[in-house]
Amino acid sequence: MYTDDQIAALYDVLGPWAKSDDFYLDLVMDAQSVLDVGCGTGMQLHRAREAGHTGRLVGIDPDPSMLRIARRYPDIDWLDGTAASMTFAGEFDLAIMMGHAFQVLITDDDVRASLAAIKRALAPGGRFAFETRNPLARAWERWNPENATEVDAPWGERVRVSHVVKSVTGDVVSMTETTSAVDGTSERVDHGDIRFLDIDSLAGFLEEAGFEIEAQYGTWDRAAFEPSSPEIITIARR
Ligand SMILES: C[S@@+](CC[C@H](N)C(=O)[O-])C[C@H]1O[C@@H](n2cnc3c(N)ncnc32)[C@H](O)[C@@H]1O
Question: Which of 107, 186, 221, 222 has its CB surrounded by the most CB atoms within 10 Å?
Answer without folding.
Answer: 186
